[in-house]
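batch job 7 of whatever, protein = Trehalose utilization
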Amino acid sequence: MRKILQALMSILAIAALLLAAPSRADNQYKILVFAMPGKYHYEYIPIARDSLEKLGKLHSFEVVYTHRPEMFDGDLKQYATIVFLNTPGEELSEARRKKFEDYMRSGGNAMLVHRSLIIAPNTWPWFEKLIGRRVGNHPMLQTGVAYVVDKKFPATFGIPERWIWSDEWYIFDNPHDIAIHPVLNVDESTYDPTKIWPGQTTQGMGRDHPVAWYHTLEGSQQGGRVFVTALGHNGEMYRDPQYLAHLLGGIYWTATGKGIAP
């Protein structure tokens, strides 16, 4: 009887492995999502994790979600793209920054979301160049209208041409003279760009005010794709189907290089 039970257990174990194998093989690629809690950005973490993991299951890619910088000590080449989700690069040590730079130069890709765009000037100039712009004054959250400037890019496919959205409409400058391809701008006539925190003053950016863009890292080998979106302040945004479609388009393009319409 014991031998029969042992044989049965062995058969069940083999069957479990065979059934599990196809689900692993179905994943097209793997992404790393780096999301650390901060003073003003923490409530989004469980919401974003749940939503991104659901997107991964729906579209057959694996999501490795972490708040631990130690993940950058491992093999980064396994990831088709690395997403900095409301987490700036200055959270990485010098050694981990070097590893990430090497990853990007050797063909890696990156996506940067909202708070990850804010890094103290000259803290890590390479990361500023990776972003492609530098955040200046920090506006208060307001409802405004973003509009599509590149209908051919995947991060715009799931949103309307004029999109009512509430966010912190970051103001940018370009100290490193980086060329970017804007995909979304914000119409400054639809909100008050001077409504910022006490002690600051600004006049906005005018007609050319990008809030999402892409570019390719100079000197990278067969990759170096970078997608940036300044949107994503509120945790509830990570449940919004249109915003998630925006993120999915960025993930899809950075991970595969595909999706831009001819």
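notes: The helical segments are 2-26, 44-59, 94-105, 125-131, 241-256.
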